């Protein structure tokens, strides 16, 4: 059982997933810091600079909509960063790779030399098998 567990843990996709989670977490912290310390104060220049203190109360229930606004800005920023820095470049690379590949039905016809060489090869094989 231990050997199977070791094999499972050392599989490439499990290790890759663990690395992705750690890097994603660190990336999320960086973007959260960017939103809280740079973007939110810029958005708040005309009025209030810290949305997290915005709230209203109804019958002793406090609704902190400012914290929700901060989370929403963070989410949109993370999604935009992932799209523009990961998804879009990967899509461009995939498109380049696809354009560079020759489709199977459009493979070029063999040259006269290639046809002649394949005929010679086939004749030599036929002679050897006799």
Please describe what this structure looks like.
With 130 residues, this protein is mostly helical. The chain has 4 helices and 2 strands; from the N terminus they run H-H-E-E-H-H. Helix 2 packs across helix 3 (65-100). The longest helix is centred in the middle third of the chain and has 36 residues, at 65-100. The two termini are 55 Å apart. The mean pLDDT is 80.
> Are there runs of 5+ residues with pLDDT below 50, and where?
none
Query: Overall 3D geometry?
Result: elongated
Counting H and I runs of at least 4 residues, what is the number of helices?
4
Average pLDDT confidence is: 80
The profile of the biggest β sheet is:
2 strands, antiparallel
Distance between the termini: 55 Å
Radius of gyration: 30 Å
Fraction of helical residues = over 70%
Q: State which percent range the strand residues make up.
A: under 5%
The neighbouring-strand order within the major sheet is: 1-2
Which helices and strands occur, and which strands form pairs?
Layout: H1 2-9, H2 12-43, E1 56-58, E2 61-63, H3 65-100, H4 112-128
Antiparallel strand pairs: 1-2
Helix pairs in contact: 2-3
Supply database-style keywords.
4 helices, single chain, elongated, mainly alpha, 2 strands, 130 residues
Brief description of this entry?
This protein is mostly helical and 130 residues long.
């Amino acid at each position: 059982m231990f050997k199977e567990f070791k094999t499972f843990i050392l599989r490439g996709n499990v290790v890759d997933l663990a690395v992705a989670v750690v890097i994603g977490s660190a990336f999320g912290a960086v973007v959260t810091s960017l939103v809280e310390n740079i973007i939110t104060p810029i958005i708040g220049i005309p009025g209030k600079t810290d949305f997290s203190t915005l709230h209203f109360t109804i019958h002793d229930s406090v609704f902190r909509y400012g914290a929700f606004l901060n989370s929403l800005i963070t989410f949109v920023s993370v999604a935009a960063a992932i799209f523009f820095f990961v998804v879009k470049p990967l899509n461009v690379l995939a498109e380049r790779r696809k354009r560079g590949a020759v489709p199977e039905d459009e493979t070029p016809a063999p040259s006269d030399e290639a046809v002649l060489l394949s005929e010679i090869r086939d004749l030599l094989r036929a002679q050897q098998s006799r």
